[in-house]
């Protein structure tokens, strides 16, 4: 084989490295440990949770952060309802005004047509003799145009503002008017948890307060006491599966909870009765390795066809 056939450009397809250089289409990149949240960090402020609380799906929050978040969501729901009611009132007022205008125009036309036939004897004789007694063609055309205009306005009133069918906008009579964005009626307004990939409904009553057991000595690097499992005394890390009890909020590793809590149906720390459904798995984002917590960032790009 010749030397040119061994070059990198002689391949009939792109390698993975060449494809990443081109920035063509969707780009994917694996995330490391630095871009992952700690197991004891709040999902909202991303700092170590003060007065930790978790939802039923295992997302951990600071008590203050989640309360303020839920309050903001409820305030936004109230704002949406108020704006929607204002919009409905404005639409009703516009409809009434347009209907009243059309009625006034019809009455004016009727009065004009009726007044033409009420003449005195002298004027009637003059008009009878006059050739222009009948309506001219121009007046007839004006009346026809007025009728068309009224019919078009009636159609606009009957037309649904939320309809997706576009009129023939290039015709001057069918040109769309500049209007405000029509808001939809707010439905199913529930406060949602945004800690994970998928949102789910959440409420203050269903939050579980967590009681971590701290180590006796402080960590040298962080100068903060680490959280440990009360049975095996192992420090919690992102690679471990941590379980929380609903009733008392004590935390254990997965192995110890299977040995003691599920077997005896009691909390290992305070001996409170615990059901199988009363255990919550804390959500940990992982360590960055392929075994535990695979995280990948994706950027969508539309390739030219």
From TrEMBL:
Keyword Lyase in the entry? The reply is: no
What protein is this chain from?
RING-type domain-containing protein
Q: Which UniProt keywords apply?
A: Metal-binding, Nucleus, Zinc, Zinc-finger
The UniProt family comment states: Belongs to the NOSIP family.
Q: Where primarily located?
A: nucleus
Q: Which GO terms describe its cellular component?
A: nucleus
UniProt-listed InterPro entries: NOSIP (IPR016818), Znf-NOSIP (IPR031790), Znf_RING (IPR001841), Znf_RING/FYVE/PHD (IPR013083)
Q: Per the record, which residues fall in region Disordered? A: 129-181
Question: Per the UniProt record, which residue ranges are transmembrane?
Answer: none
Residue ranges of every copy of the RING-type domain listed in the record: 229-271
Q: What organism does the record attribute this protein to?
A: Clydaea vesicula
Q: Which SUPFAM superfamilies match?
A: RING/U-box
- What subcellular locations does the record give? Nucleus
Record's compositionally biased regions (Basic and acidic residues): 129-163
Q: Which SMART domains match?
A: RING
This entry's Gene Ontology molecular function terms read: ubiquitin protein ligase activity; zinc ion binding
